Amino acid sequence: MMALLKVEDIHTYYGDSYVLQGVSLEVKRGEVVALLGRNGAGKTTTLRTIMGIIKPRRGKILFKGVDITPMPAFKVARMGIGYVPQGRRLFPEMTVLENLKTGMRKKGNGDKLDEIFDLFPALKDRLSQKASTLSGGEQQALSIARALLTEPEILLLDEPTTGLMPLLVSRLREVIEKLHEDGMAILLVEEKVPFALSVAERLYFMVKGKIAYEGSRRDLEDKRDVFIRYLGVKN
Ligand SMILES: Nc1ncnc2c1ncn2[C@@H]1O[C@H](COP(=O)(O)OP(=O)(O)O)[C@@H](O)[C@H]1O
Ligand SMILES: [Mg+2]
What we know:
It is a single chain. This protein has 9 helices and 10 strands. The protein is of the alpha/beta class and 235 residues long. β9 (202-207) and β10 form a beta hairpin. The longest helix is centred in the C-terminal third of the chain and has 16 residues, at 166-181.
């Protein structure tokens, strides 16, 4: 079957700085895939390139077989790719509801909003509160909720566990599992290897702008050496 999202040999620069040096990866319909790598490896740049925020100099990005590489970011989002950027990027002075509305395609998707409140009950009681007054976990929930309101077929999550207490990390795992059960594809950028292994079926490791390893969760079960080699961590 055709991949839902296919990244083909993308080369992305910031000015003269050659950051993505030929990245290829794919996510199938309904699949949860993790992209791991040390700080500075190019994970965020990969997501930004997929979203059309930065254009690659070479290579292309196919979504449902359509070449989305030339599209501006708002069009990529409309095609069905939801993006939760690193650091959440909310509108801090706007209320929770106003932040959610920026993710709504049209006024009439109240049903979708109810689904979101099932997923994140805490947001429902805070609709008129300013985003800046939410806790870290609530801000992360709001950021994911806003992306879900665009009704994406795939969700790109950039380090969603950063700064979350362990209890909220488990809550986020449940949210990802629920979305997965409902058939949503997810590309998760993570620094917490155990978290990535607990939710993703397949994992990619990035080193210095390239994909250095790809494997299924099962492939990685007894490969501590892979984690140590590519991430420099002992998990
Ligand atoms: N806006 C930018 N301008 C110039 N260089 C950048 C910019 N953003 C990131 N970089 C550089 O690109 C490389 C990859 O960064 P990034 O994609 O953020 O990595 P990661 O998300 O894996 O930590 C790093 O060397 C970083 O310093
Ligand atoms: Mg990053």
